[in-house]
Known about the structure:
Blueprint: H1 4-39, H2 76-79, H3 82-110, H4 112-137, H5 142-192, H6 199-215, H7 217-262, H8 268-306, H9 312-322, H10 328-345, H11 347-372, H12 381-428, H13 435-440
Helix pairs in contact: 4-5, 4-7, 4-8, 4-12, 5-7, 5-10, 8-9, 8-11, 8-12, 9-10, 10-11
Pfam family, one: AI-2E_transport
InterPro entries: AI-2E-like
Protein name: AI-2E family transporter
Amino acid sequence: MTKMPGWLDRLGARLTHMGQRLEERRARKEAEESEDLTADPSGPAGPAVPAEPPPGVESVPAPPSYAPAVAARPDPVAAVPWGMRVAAEASWRLLVLAGTLWVLMKVISAVQLVILAFVSALLITALLQPTVARLKRTGLPRGLATAVTAILGFAVLGLVGWFVVWQVMDNLDTLSARVRDGIEELKQWLLDSPFHVTESQINDIASNLSETIGTNTEEITSAGLTGVTVIVEIMTGILLAMFSTLFLLYDGRKVWQWVLGLVPAAARPGVAGAGPRAWRTLTAYVRGTVIVALIDAIFIGLGIYFLDVPMAVPLAVFIFLFAFIPLVGAVVSGALAVVVALVTQGVFTALMVLVVVLAVQQIEGHVLQPFILGRAVRVHPLAVVLAVAAGGLVAGIGGAVVAVPLVAVTNTVVGYLRAYSQEQALRNLPKPHGATAHATAPTPPPGVPGDPE
């Protein structure tokens, strides 16, 4: 009991010493933190120590403590609404795409003749290539099979063109006489009609038309010179198409392999699979269109012939050629046949020709095209109209002819590439494991060993 006060004194002294040491450590820690804040003004706590201004620059005093606080301005990117940012991102990409398409259209317009000739060669090759394949299967060499097919094909086309020109020239005098008779009948009908048209008015119209032709002689002459230039361009395009057809028939596979070599390696498998499918679509389209056009020409030509309309054979050939322009070509060729019948044979014959044309075109649209062309090259009528209009505006009649097969091939390629990309994505997915693998495992059919039932 006498030693208790001394023990308590020693314990109190030790606690006091430990408290002093803790106070010293706390003081050193606060001193170090104050030095860090002085060195780094952006510290999280404590006022920032302003740095000394450079020489020659006056220091700006800090605002007083009672001044209102000013909110910091947000980041400009964060201030723009999200929808507007998305629209801006899409807009500049669309502008880049539109600029690229504009440059591409300018390039196509500059070399329009070459592109149309090559596309025409592709269409002719798609029509003749099955014949080359059959001749090769009979044992003929590739070069001989190509030569025989090209010579026969070009000979048939040349004979058809010569026959059309011959028929037109042979019936031109008869057609001119019937046109004059038709004009006289129209004049007499106008005089007897309830419209009260007098012969002097008709003569005034005829004289005004003659004066218009006489005053515009220079324009007609320039139009004739333009027509000569167009004929030269057409002949050049025909020669280019012939040479391109020969090389495509002979070396088409090598040309395709060369094109595949230009494609990036990552996209090459998809393009290699889409190419043959696009070629089959183009071949089916060309062969189906030729068959449908031939049927139209035969039946409408027979109807015109039995109705005693002059130049029935040239009109049938024109119907065959215009059938390669979907929708628009049928309307133009049918209207031409009706006008010739109206001028030469009268109103009743023209109405009968119109009935024949409409009946054949209805059979073509609802029976022949779905049966012959099939679903592989079926294109929506709206897409056909827009494609023909766009092709006609860009490249005239040639553009209208190649627009629809281009849309059909593009539809096939895009559909295949979409399916191919989905298949590749499924293949690259991680394999299922655990309970997921058991749920997705194929179940064997009943009666097979391993069947859970």
